[in-house]
Known about the structure:
Layout: H1 16-32, E1 40-47, E2 50-57, E3 60-62, E4 67-73, H2 77-84, E5 87-94, E6 99-111, H3 114-121, H4 125-129, E7 161-175, E8 182-188, E9 192-197
Antiparallel strand pairs: 1-2, 1-5, 3-4, 4-7, 5-6, 6-7, 7-8, 8-9
Bound molecules: flavin mononucleotide.
Amino acid sequence: xxxxxxxSIPDSYDQISDTLGTAELIxxxxxxxxxTLFHTLVLSSHDEDKIVSRVVVxxxxxxxxxxxxxxxDARAPKIKHFKKNSNASLLGxxxxxxxxxxxxxxxxxxxxxxxxxxxxxxxxxxxxxxxxVEGGSSLKIENPSEYDLKDGxxxxxxxxxxxxxxxxxxxxxxxxxSSGHRRAIxxxxxxxxxxxxxx
Length: 199
Ligand SMILES: Cc1cc2nc3c(=O)[nH]c(=O)nc-3n(C[C@H](O)[C@H](O)[C@H](O)COP(=O)(O)O)c2cc1C
């Protein structure tokens, strides 16, 4: 077992199914565990011919339905990116685990629907407060202090709240360890197909 984390995962990988099992355990744990770097993942979108990446907090992982949920400001540029081209990739690495996860898939944007209502209701007051900021995410401004979060009706922020559901079709696992690197790709088309890759 890996001793640099409280997560009970193998120290070596000989069965390819274990690489998927570990990836799912890591993402499951990362929803609540803010100490793992997998709690904050890098999500990339297309902006015309550019690729744009940003860090987002993992809010939910569903291995059965193969999606991860993120919260964002409905006025953020990435919303337009995903509406135009839903293709996306997700990347995470935690040196404590020596594991990198790379997921390919697509993002569905949710705004003022059952998904956003549920997500908003389970958000903390601190998280909700971010969505009350005037002007919206990424507006060019002269004086940032004018945009510091103020006390007001936190619930008004719901109108600026969006949920990104990232549904993945492949998951790549990379474990870098001197005793033997392991890299595996898991893809879902009709069913699951798993292959080892040269690390
Ligand atoms: C630690 C950390 C956590 C963040 N979490 C989120 C998040 O959950 N959702 C989000 O939209 N932006 C989050 N951000 C800000 C984004 O990285 C990004 O700057 C912002 O969403 C604007 O992105 P965009 O211009 O690509 O739309 C986070 C940034 C950091 C550094």
